[in-house]
Amino acid sequence: MNVLEINNLVLAYLGDSVYETYIRFNLIKKGYNHVKNFQEKSLEYVSAKSQAKILKKLKDENTFNAEELEVIKRARNAKINSHPKNCDIQTYHEATSLEALFGYLKLQNKIERIEEIISKIFTD
Description:
The chain is an all-alpha fold. The chain contains 6 helices and no strands. It has helices at 8-29, 35-46, 48-60, 66-76, 89-107, 111-122. The radius of gyration is 14 Å and the shape is globular.
């Protein structure tokens, strides 16, 4: 299977679950054990606005290699027919591209790289 031939929105669909699982796991490791607090804190990482902000920060820090940047670019430019009402289309594109990267890395079985990126997200 050539992962680069997979539809970007399919990568994002998979990546959404991968990303959210790692976020939840890291929040539990940090000691969030009440569902209400856990849910509120997770929104700081999993909402489209948060994901777009995180992606910008990681790009500014030169976190991604050329291959990863290509996946992000392809996914950001994917044709999306709808988006949530609580964010603009550009923000949604950025969030989708971060999710697609996680889907791509998971399909490549680059678990160590996923964990490196998640670690950078949680260092702040």
